[in-house]
Amino acid sequence: MSLETETKRRRTFAIISHPDAGKTTLTEKLLLFSGAIQIAGAVKGRKASRHATSDWMEIEKQRGISVASSVMQMSYRDHVVNLLDTPGHKDFSEDTYRVLTAVDSALMVIDAANGVESQTRRLIEVCRQRDTPIITFVNKMDREVRDPLDILDEVERELGMPCCPITWPVGQGKSFGGIINLRTQSMTVFAPGSEKRPQDFEVIPLTEADKLRARFGQAFDDAMESMELAVGASTAWDHDAFLAAKLTPVFFGSGVNNFGVMEVLDAVVDMSPSPGPRVSTVLVNKQPVQKEVKPSDLGFAGVVFKVQANMDANHRDRIAFVRVASGKYEPGMKMKVQRTGKELRPTSVVTFMSQRREAVEEAYAGDIIGFTTHGGVQLGDTITDGANLQFTGLPFFAPEMFATVVLKNPLRTKQLQQGLMQLGEEGAIQVFKPDAGGNMLLGAVGQLQFEVVQHRLKTEYDAEVRLESSQYTSARWITAETPEALREFETTYPLRMAHDAANALAYMCTSPYDVRLAQERFPKIQFHPLREHA
Ligand code: G4P
Predict the structure, then answer these.
(1) What does the alpha-carbon distance between residue 52 and residue 202 come to, in Å, rounded to a whole number?
(2) What is the pLDDT of residues 219-264, one digit of tens each?
(3) Where does the record say this protein resides (predicted)?
């Protein structure tokens, strides 16, 4: 098959939701229906550690399991579907945001009783920033939940885009009768049970309204009425608007009962986009110039959006998750890390098949492959088979909390440095080295990150540290209009300057007013709350 055909049949999407909305359940059912797994329960294993807050052994476990299950590839209707999980714990949200840079669309799962919840909101923001098309699945219709019109209204408000219902519920909770498919003008009848397959559900055309009324009574009439209201109030289906993230198709169902799930899987294939072009920078006469990389471009190119340490503490190898942007990966191919110009010599290259890893035979744009390496690869790195280009857009967020690292045994300095460098490269934590010297600073978005890093420094690098509170509350990456302006700024605040793991310059803040004051004083300096790997 040609490059073009291969990429056209790929769908790469992330599932986003607030914890407990039913993401794990839905993921499992999607895998089940596509034939990627045979038995239910396979994905559930990692659920046990979901609620862990500060028990790091649990986190370790979660980390290990998520290597295998955070990316899942399945084939369905002659398509290759790549599903990316987004870690649920709020303290790992940075990781989640980066996962969203590797997908072409998102599936938002919401609990019909709770609507759009806090953690979904932040993820939506990232999708909106990137104009990622979103499919909405309203789950748990078998429970006593909110009125569907109410839910649509909330989704519209939260997403800031109109909804277009594709299925519509008849009743809810005990009286949940099923869903009306607006496209086929038929009703699929609900039957509880986790063993059901899509073909097991009875389908009755709406033309047999008398039969439906006799069977579902008032719930059917009410559903027809509210459906008409919803259709009247919402925009007609417009595929281009969906692709431009200006409209979301909405599905109703019950994941745990396998109900309404097939419709979502079909929507991923029928509606979601195949991989599109990605922006990169190339150097032309030493000047950065933007260049679009198309999926069907012959040269292989990909970007590292996640780096994960392996579980085996005796082997310091790590997996770099690469989203392929163009060309074709083949085993034995020579690859280069653009940042360093060095050849990448992975010990193995794997693909992720639900619960297991397999050696990659070939991969195309949209696919996620994992390079097992001993280092030399960082988050945001671009990997190509030779072309000189660098993808942009992998976000790093300014930390919201800081700690100073104090090594308990000074003889372990080398191990500490190596550990911090590697954990920083992985994105487990942000590491800042003060320009004026002194202890290293750790920056995090969530408290849990500190605990994990402290634990990992001890177990993986044999470097025991104490984390002390720091006067800093935030940081801003800085750039300047001119080198002179930058120099002036640096000499004014020598004690506030630090460099992060990617050697980017940052200004450390002690209060929210800091930035404003500094900005007023130095209008030629730009303060960035977000650093995009460039
Ligand atoms: P998450 O990954 O988004 O955190 O959610 P998960 O799938 O683990 O689901 C959270 C809970 O909601 C689970 O119950 C799950 O069984 C239940 N659930 C998922 N989909 C539906 C649905 O359509 N209807 C109903 N009624 N419940 C649903 P749990 O009690 O936490 O776990 P379990 O013991 O049932 O596995």
Answers:
(1) 41
(2) 999 999 999 999 998 889 999 999 999 999 999 999 999 999 999 9
(3) Cytoplasm
Same fold, 18-70+86-103+105-271 and 278-391: yes
Residue 37 contacts residue 45 (beta carbons within 8 Å): no
79-85 and 10-17 as β-strands: parallel, antiparallel, unpaired? parallel
Write down the pLDDT at residue 311.
Answer: 56
Q: What Rg value do the Cα atoms of the chain yield, rounded? A: 25
Query: 218: which residues sit within 8 A by CB, 6+ positions away?
Result: none
CA of 154 to the centre of ligand 1 (A): 22
- CATH topology for 278-391 is Rossmann fold (3.40.50)
**How far is residue 146 CA from its own chain's centroid?**
28
Q: Is 142 annotated as a binding residue?
A: yes
What are the pocket residues of ligand 1 if the criterion is a CB atom closer than 6 Å to any ligand atom?
Answer: 17, 19-25, 47, 50, 88, 139-140, 142-143, 254-257
219: amino acid identity, one letter: A
Would you say 23 and 137 are in contact if contact means Cβ atoms under 8 Å apart?
A: no
- Chain-centroid distance of CA 249 in Å reads 20
Closest CA to 259 of 32, 44, 23, 29: 29
pLDDT at 283: 74
- 140 CA distance to ligand 1 middle (Å): 8
Residue 249: strand pairing partners: 164
Q: What is the DSSP letter of 273?
A: P
| pLDDT tens digits along 190-230 | 999 888 888 899 999 999 999 999 999 999 999 999 999 99
What's the CA angle centered on 503, arms 499 and 504, to 5 degrees? 70
CA angle 38, 137, 233 (to 5 degrees): 150
- CA–CA distance, 413 with 26 (Å, rounded to integer): 46
Give the architecture (CATH level 2) of 395-532: 2-Layer Sandwich (3.30)
